Amino acid sequence: MKSVDLTAVHITTFESHKTRKMGKQIVIIILGLFAFTTSCKTGASDLNPNYPDEIINSWLESYEEADGTYRPSDYKSFPESRYRQVYKFMEKNTCEYSVLSPEDAHDIENGFWEYIEDENVINVYNQNMKLHEKLKVISISANLLQLDSVNP
Q1: Which of 7, 76, 125, 149 could pair with 112 in a Cys bridge, judged by C-beta atoms 3.0 to 4.6 Å apart?
Q2: Which of 10-24, 119-133, 138-152 has the lowest mean pLDDT?
Q3: Cα angle vertex 79, ends 115, 105, to 5°?
Q4: How many CA atoms lie within 13 A of 85 on its CB side?
Q5: 15 contacts: CB under 8 Å, gap ≥ 6
């Protein structure tokens, strides 16, 4: 009669059960991560994707002409200025805008934007989708964007 080491059989069965259980946990974690990442939105997906084509540009404030006047950044050489507001409206409702910090530094922040046609307004949001600025569009063409700031 052959003797069987029951300790070895018990350990092998335990390790096999442990491996299967860990495999199931990994599958559950992967499925959970997939569900989480596909359900999260960047923010821009909820914004109005319709806008006049002329808005897509990098706009610099040309206050020498008039308040609220913006020209494309490559329109001309702008005179030196202590602060010149910049908006860069890009496709897929992303944007960059300048911010004057308390230390007098000029920072560029990333965010989102949308054009509300029936109000003729551009809403600019920060990365957390908090309304940063509401801008009334007075006129727009390829070389001119005239805006008026609206209190949100």
Answers
A1: 125
A2: 10-24
A3: 70
A4: 17
A5: none
**3-state DSSP call for residue 84?**
coil
Which residue has 């020498």 as its token pair? 64
| Residue-level pLDDT at 28 | 58
Mean pLDDT for the stretch of residues 5-16 = 54
Per-residue tokens: 19: 């491996």
Distances (CA, A) of 122 to 11, 22, 60, 97: 67, 51, 16, 13
Average pLDDT over residues 122-140: 97
Contacting residues for 61 by C-beta, under 8 A, at least 6 apart = 69, 70, 84, 85, 86
Dmax over Cα atoms in the chain, in whole Å?
Answer: 105
SS3 20: helix
Q: Which tokens belong to 70?
A: 């913006």
71: which residues sit within 8 A by CB, 6+ positions away? 59, 60, 62, 65, 78, 143, 144, 145
| Residue 98 neighbours by CB distance under 10 Å | 16
What's residue 95's pLDDT?
98
